[in-house]
Design brief:
The protein has 158 residues and is of the alpha+beta class. It contains five helices and three strands; from the N terminus they run H-H-H-H-E-E-E-H.
């Protein structure tokens, strides 16, 4: 097996950096959803679907009704990132290149299926990873601002 060239190493390094950004961004929201539930309901919903339900229920309270639309949007948008987060967190990464410098990243992971485990896969490029990380960062910035506002206005931190 040949030693990867510098441009290939650079692609791998950048993909690993972007992978970390995507996973960390998702984790920020996971924490905020759990945090608000713990502080307001004294419950710790472990599964993400339960954290989302808990946050949406908080938005249904009269005291938090003014945030309901934004809170629901933040919760619903998180689900859009679920698949990429799973691949970034659990997927095995392989870089494929051709002789003229084109590249493709392949991610593979197992998911539980009705008959056992199923090998899943997906491909992407560095450009698509950059766009995904950028999109997720913008989402997290909006979500963090919303939670900051809720915590300050409703004195959640006490």
């Amino acid at each position: 097996m040949d030693e990867p060239e510098d441009w290939q190493k650079a692609l791998i390094n950048e993909s690993l950096y972007l992978r970390g950004r995507i996973v960390a961004s998702y984790s920020q929201i996971e924490f905020l959803l759990a945090d608000i539930s713990v502080k307001l309901d004294l419950k710790f919903p472990y599964l993400i679907k339960d954290r989302i339900k808990a946050a949406k229920r908080i938005g249904e309270r009269q005291q938090f009704a003014m945030y309901k639309g934004e809170l629901d949007k933040v919760c619903d948008e998180l689900l859009e990132f679920d698949e990429i987060r799973n691949y970034m967190s659990h997927g095995f990464l392989t870089l494929h290149v051709d002789r003229i410098g084109n590249h493709q990243f392949e991610y593979r992971m197992y998911q539980r299926g009705p008959e056992g485990f199923v090998l899943m896969g997906g491909t992407t490029t560095i450009e698509r990873l950059r766009a995904a990380a950028r999109h997720m960062t913008e989402y997290v910035e909006r979500a963090v601002e919303l939670f900051k506002r809720i915590y300050a206005e409703q004195k959640v931190e006490k």
